[in-house]
Protein: Maleylacetoacetate isomerase
Organism: Leucopsar rothschildi
Amino acid sequence: PILYSYFRSSCSWRVRIALALKGISYDLVPVNLIKDGGQQFSAEFKALNPMQQVPALKIDGITLCQSLAIINYLEETHPNPRLLPKDPKKRAQVRMIADHIVSGIQPLQNLSVLKQVGEKKMEWAQNCITSGFQALEQILQHTAGCYCVGDEVSMADLCLVPQVANAERFKVDMGPYPTITRINKALLELEAFKITHPSRQPDTPAELRA
């Protein structure tokens, strides 16, 4: 497999965690979203992913884009350890939380949107994340065990940790979100989350390395 990734992309980080958890080795091709006006806009990369976004994963003779589609494919082809619970209710909760982050928070504060917002991008990102986290904290109080849904690491957790990293980068006060903070801390203790961290990627700038 070949993963096209950017060290700071939260969508790429989700996929890196899934690959690590499932023990799938891969080659990483960095795509710098800022350098050269954004390497994702090259003709070469557009041929790979017409949306000109990371991640993209070449695997089993196909190219997949969109992080949750990739994670679902990995789940179906490498079922252990599972990232979706067996219980249909818990499985639905995992998907709900993942969608909440992937559709309801992250796209509103990603690089392409912030470019459009301009000078007030920090304030914009903080508002988007804060409103999303207020709802998420409430949801997690009903679903969480050690992690987002019960005591097994799931697709929801793969979405949570990169989003908390975004919140920290945009200086969001995490005080009002004790459940999110607790789960994030527990997940960052796990090896798959450590080795895939943005501070430990081949394309991480020297000043941001762990």
Summary: The two ends are 26 Å apart (CA to CA). The chain has two domains: 2-80, 88-193. The chain has a mean pLDDT of 97.
